[in-house]
Amino acid sequence: HLVPRNGYAPLNSDFDSFYTRRLKTRMDECFSQPVTGVAGRTIMLLDRISPDYNHTQILTGTRTRALNISSYNYLGFAQARGGCADAVEEVIRRYGVSTCGARLEGGSSDLHTVTEALVANFVGMEDAMISSMGFATNSALIPALVGKGCLVISDELNHASIRFGTRLSGANVRMFKHNDMGSLEALLREVISQGQPKTHRPWKKILVIVEGLYSMEGTLANIPVILELKKKYKFYLFVDEAHSIGALGPHGRGVADYFNIPPRSIDILMGTFTKSFGAAGGYIAGTKSLIDRVRLRGHLGPYAEAMTPPVLTQVLASMASIMGVSPPLPPLDGGEGVVTTSGTYVHPGPAPASSLPNWLTLPYALASGTEGRTRLRRLAFNSRYLHNGLIKLGFITYGHPSSPIVPLLLFNPGKMNMFHRMMKDRKTPIIVVVVAYPATPLVTSRVRFCVSAAHTKEDVDVVLRACDEVGDVLDLKHGIGRG
Ligand code: PMP
């Protein structure tokens, strides 16, 4: 079926040929597991009765509750009741579910302004712009920062959205070895003629892009060393905090908090709300003049639907909970008004002004509430506990011990399906994510555990016991171990 017909190849030829022809195994079984309900500590799996399961099977098929160690629910804010969910429910009644417009076209509500101010304060920057999709925050907004004549220096394992954005920008792109500061410095030395950095730079701007915490590796960017290099070679620094914001640092404020450095020593902080905040969308934060320019020049302002009110509220409520402040919800606008029996329209008028703090002018005060502290401590404990437990059992893992992303190496992509199924078929079913090419090199196919503050120590013990048994069957324990 791969032979081009009528002079052209079938649309699905690339992916299809790799996974179904070369590996000769039904790889799709371990991907796209159908689920229902909240992606919390546990999750409800829908039985995939046949490969082409349909809506009737979804409604009538068997359901299995599994321990969920696969979702990005780092702080456990994915919940359907209580906490953030109550505030979200209230806002849907006031604002509905959609803005029905782009930010520059009627889609900028008070909720957007308040959220942007809170985000700027949380990450310690002057201003922030939010958008309805994390992927698009990189892919559509990096072109507003750099263009032709600029050079982007990118970690070789940067996320697809970064690679997409840098290519779209028209800037030249060079890559350095993953997290290898020697490789970054060698590249900087090569592209900047030393001794006369200001006069002999062939580039309008040089932007170095790294991730705070790498999503497939669990590695932490060496921000202190990158900042030293920044002083020496004078470049701009962009850090994607999709996985580190909310998850790292004693106050959950990401890499700056973790390394105890001033956030404004970094030029651009980008992040997403999909992970630690149990929401969706992304942000980009920097100086006020830069963010003003991105708002106008980036393609998201005029061309993309603004972040929706329920999602904004989830961001506000979860972030406020981490910071230990009450959710800064704007006051009621008085409702839509009513038409009386005599046909006159009565508008209730504006609500009284609120006494909300102006988050944009508040100092960056590192604080976290009791709730936030508890969640952060639990996440940090669970991350280390799983990581160390797997190493003790003799597995080869990647990543920093503080990382809630814990990759366990399978090496052979043929073992992905087996690992996934054996974990799922246990008495206490466990759902895991397995990743391989093209997200990782083929030979380092892996299981990627995502730990959550919602997990208990006993949950992690259940995962470790299961890995121990499955690891023996699949011959995965090639590490030195520390048992
Ligand atoms: N940046 C990084 C580093 C990511 O890992 C991801 C997605 N996991 C994104 C950006 C895109 O974010 P989103 O899924 O919120 O669109």
From TrEMBL:
Catalysis performed (reactions): L-serine + hexadecanoyl-CoA + H(+) = 3-oxosphinganine + CO2 + CoA
Assigned keywords, A-Z: Pyridoxal phosphate, Transferase
Location of the Aminotransferase class I/classII large domain: 67-316, 371-466
GO biological process, one term: ceramide biosynthetic process
EC number(s) from the headed UniProt entry: 2.3.1.50
Class of this enzyme: transferase
Gene Ontology CC: membrane; serine palmitoyltransferase complex
Cofactors: pyridoxal 5'-phosphate
Listed GO MF terms: pyridoxal phosphate binding; serine C-palmitoyltransferase activity
Domain of life of the native organism: Eukaryota
Family under the similarity heading: Belongs to the class-II pyridoxal-phosphate-dependent aminotransferase family.
Annotated protein name in UniProt: serine C-palmitoyltransferase
The species this protein was found in: Hypsizygus marmoreus
Recorded name of the encoding gene: lcb2
